[in-house]
# Entry
Amino acid sequence: MESNRIIIFDTTLRDGEQTPGVNLNLTEKVEIAKQLEALGVDIIEAGFPAASNGDYAAVKSVAETVNCTVAALCRCITADIDRGWDAVKKAKKPRLHLFLATSEIHMKYKLKTTPEEVFDRAVSCVQYAKTLCNDIEFSCEDASRSDPEFMYKVLQAVIDAGATTVNIPDTVGYKIPNEFGAFIAAIKENVPNISNAIISVHCHNDLGLAVSNTIVALQNGARQIETTVNGIGERAGNCALEEVIMALATRKDLFNLTHNINTSAIYRTSKRISKLTGVPIHVCKPIVGDNAFAHESGIHQHGVLTNPLTYEIMTPQSVGKTESTLVLGKLSGRHAFSAHLESLGYHLTKEKIDDAFARFKELADKKKKITDEDLEAIVLDNASDIPQLYKLEDFKLTTCANSLSKIEITLRCGDRILSDVYMADGPITTTYSALAKLTDGQWPLASYDIKAIPEGDDALGEVVVRLRKNDRQYTGRSVSHNIIEASILAYLDSVNRAMADVQ
Ligand code: KIV
Ligand code: ZN
# Structure
């Protein structure tokens, strides 16, 4: 009998990190891993160690930090498997995740090989990986466009070779739900030893069907699902963890499935990952978007006041979304401050608490109400360990309606002081032109976003900037009561990341 416990394999740190413009450093990845563990995921895919030294180091650090299973992604290449194993071997529960494409289009044009060679390579690599690690996952990349008969043979052989989980990715987000459900059911029927492995699915969202395909796969016998928080990932992203979990929770009448996710940690995790990755959450995004529980029309508002169930199928509290409260004030001490951060799930070093406390005091002088969101903004602004090559010393900006803006700005770069006076049209163009000149970057601005947190009159400005250097984008972010200062600091964060070439 099939178990009704499902395994949540989170790939925010691997597939999610493949979102264009996202490049997390080691500290940020470890921070996210801790948050994912607190959320209750079973497996964290921490990265692709053979891809870069930065990825290797991050996977190793995550493996040595958390208690849940940590997976390393590897191509079916011995050197990748060795590198992956080296990165995860100290994890309490290590997993090697091997992948090889089985669709004709991938075998012919990408791998330039034959199905026979793919079969042999898959088997020999799983056999080799099994000599290192007991927990082996094998993925047939582009499974959903593969010839089913060939895929069944590969699955049977890799299970015989030692794979304990077989993953069926809809790599290009191509399948339609009833078709994908039947595809999974057919694997159960046609792979004779399938009961020796767990069936996993990994759905991309190119047609907006990743969550539906994941759910229908569960209904047809999959027991591991691969997700990312906020659905981030390659192209249109991956199956959003929060959406699939809340679908299962809201429609328990249909699904008799259990998991280990603490739904009340969803909102906080989503916000934190959005901040650390710099990928904003659309206001209408299900579950975690700002409007997900907002009722605009009078009829809806009246209904909800009378009985919330009229227009709400789940409560904001169930995902941990509560009113932003006044938590600390100007007179709060360091002890109360650090205790409150602990209660929000931030376990910071003494040094980081000192920095954050200094910023809190500065802010408390300017802003009457300090909320949880403000505190999170301060802490996350301080979370990065990127070498601060360029630092802001001072600036003065003058701007008015009908003439050029003017900035006088001073930066520090090591022992050097760099100053400039620049005039141009509009305060941000002026500021960013001066910064480009001073930092010798001249990298094109890919995007600039500004948002008030929390909303209201007394808000902080949060700025997220993306600079394009060669074929990569570097995301910088900052918050300040002064939006020009936040804009400068976010720009410098992005430059400092590009200079450190964080991978
Ligand atoms: O989308 C995909 O096929 C993948 C595999 C590496 C699992 O991400
Ligand atoms: Zn993927």
Q: What stands out?
A: Residues 334-381 form one domain.
